[in-house]
DNA sequence: TATTTTAAGTGTAGTTTGTACATTTATTTT
DNA sequence: AAAATAAATGTACAAACTACACTTAAAATA
C-alpha cells in the first residue's frame, strides 16, 4: 500500500471551476469572467475559486456559483477533475470542474457586471486561460449526452415555454435541426409536459401554447432517466 | 473573484482510488485490498494512494494500478471526485475515483497476494471503508452506460473469446439475460468482430468459434462511439 | 458404424420506433 | 373580406427491436 500514513504526503491546492450554460433562444451560451489575479489576469476564464478545507467540494462549487450569479437552487453536476501537473502555470492546482444550467433570463445583470462576467456564444468563445476551453468542450459533450436521457433541458428555459423554444434548445445543444412534427410528437408522447391554456403571442398571430415541465409525472415514470431524444 | 492569490489557500490531501473490474465468466468482479493503515486498518478497501505533487492525477491512478496488478496499458478512466468533508475520518482527503477494466486471467496472482487483494463478486461485496461502496456503485452504473455505446467490454475478456462469453459479459454487466439469436445478430452486425478459424472446444462437442475485437474496423466506423447494446 | 448427446448456430413474422414530408388552422393586420 | 403569419397536425415507408424453436457439427457411446 502506498498510503502508509496521512502525514508526510503532499497537500495540493484544490480549485473548483464552473461551466455555466445558458440559452437565450438562439444559441447555447457560456458565462465567463475576467480573471482577477495573476497569472493571466484580465484574460477570460471560467468562474472559479479554491476549495476550503472545511467545506465539501460540491458546497464549494455551489458557493462559487452563488457568488457570481446570486442564484441558488441551480442545476449543477460534477463534470471532471483536471489534474495535469502543468495545467496552471501559477502552481500545482488540481481543478474540479462542474457544469451548471441556468435560466439566463433570471440571472441578475448587475451581479454579473460586478464580476466582469459575460455570456459568450459557445461557438464564438474567446481565448481562455489554462485548460478551460477543454473543460467547456467536455461540458458540452456531457450536456449532449445527459440531455438525451434526462429532463434537464428545462433548466435552461423559462418555467413556461413553447414547443418551438424547446425545440430550439435541443437544436442548439446538438447543433442540428429537427423536423418540427416529429419533434413535437416525440416530446409530447413522453407525457412529461403539461400544456397551459395561455399562449405566447409575440412571435405569431395565432399564438403558441405555453407548456411547463411536469416534474411529478416525470418522477412517476421513472427515476432513472427516460429517453428524451 | 474568490481566487485572490495562490498562497493563503488551503491545501488538501488528494487521494486516488481505483475500482478495478474483472470478469471470470460468471459474474462481474471487483478487486479489493485489505487496508494497511489506520483508520480502518484491515478492512476491505479499494486500492488507493495519495497523489504526489509532481505527478498528474491520471499518472497517479496509473501508478497505483501498476502497484497492485503489475499490469500497465490497462483501460482506465476517471469516474468522479469524492470530496465530502467527513468522508475520511482520518482527515480531510478528497479522493478521485478511477475505474479500470482488466483481463482477470492475465492478472498476476502473486502480485495480488502481496497486497492482500481479492476478487469479490459485485453482488457479494463485503463491508468497505469510507464511501468506497458508493464509489463501486457509481462505477458500475458508469460501466453500464459506457458499455452500451463503446467497445470497452472487450477489455474484460481474453483477446479471443466466443460469442457466448461475450454475451455472458454483457449479461453480467446489466444483470439480465439476452436472447442468444438477437444478441448474436446485433453484435455481429456491428462489423467490429473478426471470426477466427479456431474453435473453443472445452464446453461443447461442436465447438464455438473464437472471435477477436477488430480495433481497426471499429476506428474506421466512428471514433465517437457506436451503439453496442 | 450407427446412435446419442451436447451446445452452437441460424431465420422469420410481428411490433415498435424512427423518418420524411405538406396542408390546414387560428388569429391579427390590412 | 382578404392576406399574412406562424402553429398545429397526419400518413406512409423504412428501420430496428422482440419473441420464439429447429437444425447442425462434432464427440462420445453403444
Describe the structure.
The structure is a homodimer of 229-residue chains. Chain A is α+β, with helices and mostly antiparallel strands. Chain A has helices at 57-69, 109-114, 132-149, 163-174, 180-189, 215-221; strands at 11-23, 28-34, 44-45, 47-50, 75-82, 93-101, 117-121, 160-162, 193-200, 208-213. In chain A, strands 1, 2, 3, 4, 5, 6 and 7 form a seven-stranded mixed beta sheet that branches. In chain A, strands 8-10-9 form a three-stranded antiparallel beta sheet. In chain A, β9 (193-200) and β10 (208-213) form a beta hairpin. Chain A is elongated and about 65 Å long. The mean pLDDT of chain A is 94. At the A-B interface, β1, β4, α1, β5 and β6 of A face β1, β4, α1, β5 and β6 of B. The first copy, chain A, binds a DNA duplex (30 and 30 nucleotides) through residues 162-164, 179-182, 184-186, 201, 203-209.
Amino acid at each position: 500500500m502506498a498510503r502508509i500514513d496521512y502525514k508526510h504526503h503532499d497537500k495540493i491546492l484544490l480549485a473548483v471551476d464552473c461551466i455555466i450554460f445558458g440559452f437565450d433562444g438562439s444559441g447555447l451560451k457560456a458565462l465567463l469572467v475576467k480573471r482577477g489575479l495573476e497569472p493571466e489576469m484580465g484574460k477570460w476564464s471560467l468562474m472559479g475559486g479554491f476549495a476550503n478545507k472545511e467545506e465539501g467540494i460540491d458546497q464549494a462549487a455551489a458557493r462559487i456559483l452563488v457568488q457570481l450569479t446570486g442564484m441558488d437552487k441551480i442545476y449543477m453536476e460534477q463534470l471532471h477533475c483536471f489534474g495535469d501537473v502543468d495545467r496552471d502555470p501559477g502552481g500545482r492546482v488540481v481543478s474540479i470542474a462542474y457544469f451548471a444550467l441556468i435560466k439566463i433570463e433570471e440571472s441578475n445583470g448587475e451581479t454579473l457586471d460586478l464580476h466582469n462576467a459575460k455570456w459568450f456564444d459557445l461557438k464564438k468563445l474567446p481565448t481562455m486561460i489554462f485548460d478551460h476551453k477543454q473543460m467547456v468542450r467536455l461540458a458540452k459533450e456531457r450536456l449532449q449526452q445527459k440531455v438525451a436521457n434526462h429532463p434537464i433541458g428545462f433548466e435552461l428555459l423559462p418555467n413556461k415555454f413553447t414547443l418551438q423554444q424547446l425545440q430550439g434548445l435541443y437544436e442548439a445543444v446538438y447543433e442540428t435541426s429537427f423536423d418540427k412534427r416529429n419533434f413535437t410528437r416525440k416530446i409530447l408522447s413522453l407525457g412529461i409536459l403539461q400544456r397551459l391554456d395561455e399562449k405566447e403571442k409575440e412571435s405569431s398571430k395565432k399564438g403558441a401554447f405555453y407548456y411547463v415541465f411536469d416534474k411529478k409525472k416525470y418522477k412517476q415514470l421513472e427515476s432513472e432517466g427516460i429517453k428524451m431524444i
